[in-house]
Amino acid sequence: MQDPSKLLKQIHILIVDDMEAIRSMIKACLRDLGASKISTTFDGEEAWKIIQNQKIDMIVCDWDMPRTTGLELLQLVRSKEESKHIPFLMLTASNEKGRVLSAVEAGVNDYLSKPFQPKELEFRVIKLLRKVNLNAPSPSSN
After folding, report:
1. How many domains does the chain have?
2. What is the pLDDT of residue 132?
3. Is residue 127 part of a domain?
4. How far does Cα 129 stand from its chain's mean position?
5. What φ, ψ does residue 96 adopt, rounded to 5°?
6. 67 found inside a domain
7. Do the domain assignments include residue 110?
8. Alpha-carbon distance 86 to 78, whole Å?
9. Which domain holds residue 38?
């Protein structure tokens, strides 16, 4: 089985969050895992522009953002043939069941509640690597 860090070097991850500190923390966690191609932006509207102009392999996106929310971005991504396959990890500070259900109905691949530990992010990202068809190994249970 291939090392997740080698797999992460092969994909382009887009981080979308309106808080710079969160974007930086997620980017640092992904870099620690071996990711090398990471783009970041502050809202769904800007994220959509990036998705239309670059090959994105995975999206890590906050729910609550100004202008275009994470849910709105997810719905847009899933509505277009060229982007509907992109694995999408939703971040939310709310555990409201209605929110999670809305995201699942819109086609989210996974979600992660804030605050989260780096190990939780690692587990979810490695899990989503399978959606990119790179045969990632199962996340360790350590």
Report:
1. 1
2. 63
3. no
4. 11
5. -60, 125
6. yes
7. yes
8. 8
9. 4-120
pLDDT tens-place string over residues 47-83: 999 999 999 999 999 999 989 999 999 999 999 999 9
CA distances from 15 to 19, 70, 98 (A): 11, 11, 24
The residue type found at 106 is: A
Which CATH number does the domain housing residue 46 bear? 3.40.50.2300
Find, among 109, 122, 78, 86, the residue nearest to 14 by Cα: 86
In order, the DSSP letters of 85-123 are TS-EEEEES---HHHHHHHHHHT-SEEEESS--HHHHHH
pLDDT in tens, 34-51: 999 999 999 999 999 999
- pLDDT of res. 135: 42
- The reply to whether 137 falls in a domain is no
Residues with Cβ within 8 Å of 106's Cβ and at least 6 positions away in sequence, in order, are: 71, 74, 75, 78
Find the angle CA(113)-CA(40)-CA(71) to the nearest 5 degrees.
45
Reported pTM: 0.89
